[in-house]
Amino acid sequence: VMDPTEENLQELCKPALLQRLLKTESLPVLWLVLRGLVLLSERPETAKGLRDLLPDVMGTLQFANTSIALKTTKISRNVMTHLGKREARPIAVELAEKLLPLFSHVSSEVREGSIRLFKDVMEAVVWWQKRNMRKTVRRGLLPLLFQMSDETRSVAEASGEALVCCAKFLKWKELKHQAKRKGKMEIKECL
Maestro/Maestro-like HEAT-repeats domain: from which residue to which, for each copy (predicted)? Predict the structure, then answer.
C-alpha cells in the first residue's frame, strides 16, 4: 500500500468527512483512514485540529483489531503531545476511560502504548477534573499492578512508571514509595 499523497491528506483534513469515515464498518477503509490520521497527527499544524475527533478515533477500538488499536493509540499520543497539557484537558478524562481495557490487550505494543498514554493523560488533568479522573485512576491500579509482571519488559516498565504516576495523582505516599521500589507484594498491600 502506497503512502497517501499530500493531496489525499489535505482532503482528509475535513472534520465532517473524518467523522463519517471513522464510523465506517469496513476495516480496510478504517485502516486507511487511521493511517492517514497517524500522518496528520505527526504534524503540529494538523494535530491540533484532530483534538475534537479523538472520541471518534477512540470509538474505533470497538473492532478489537490490533492494527487499529495501535494506530488509535499512536494518533491519540501524537495529538496529546502537540496540544500540550492545557489544550488536552477537555478530553483527558474521557480518553483515560477508553484506555483502561487496552491494558490487557493481546498485543504488547498496544498494552505499552495505552499505559504510556494513560500516564500522559493523567498528567494533563487539572484540579477541577481530578474528582472524575480519580475514579478512573483507581480502576487502573490493579491492571497496572498485573502488568508489572508482563513478560514484555517494556510493558512491565511502563506499568511501573504509570503506577508511580497514579500514586502521585492520588497522593498515596506509601504506594508511590513501593511502586518506585517495584515491590509487587507491598504494592498489593497498599491497594
Answer: 18-180
Domain assignments of the chain as residue spans, ordered by start: 6-190
Burial pattern 13-28, b for ≥16 Cβ within 10 A else e, equals eeeeebeebbeeeeee
Q: Collect all residues with Cβ–Cβ distance below 8 Å to 15 and sequence separation of at least 6.
A: 49, 52, 53
The string of pLDDT tens digits covering residues 114-127 is: 999 999 888 877 66
Question: Rounded to an integer, what distance in angstroms lies between the CA atom of residue 124 and that of residue 133?
Answer: 11
Average of pLDDT values for 21-34?
A: 87
Model confidence at 140, pLDDT cuts 50, 70, 90, reads very high
Cell numbers for 62: 470497538
pLDDT value at position 182?
Answer: 73
Residue 34 has pLDDT above 70, yes or no: yes
Instruction: Say what the pLDDT of residue 3 is.
Output: 64
The CATH number for 6-190, chosen from 3.40.50.970, 1.25.10.10, 1.10.8.870, 3.10.129.10, is 1.25.10.10
64: left (phi over 0), alpha (psi -120 to 50) or beta: left
Residue 114 to residues 10, 14, 15, 57, Cα–Cα distance (Å): 28, 27, 25, 14
The angle that helices 173-181 and 153-170 make with each other, rounded to 10 degrees, is: 160
Of the CA atoms within 13 Å of residue 140, those in its CB half-sphere come to 34
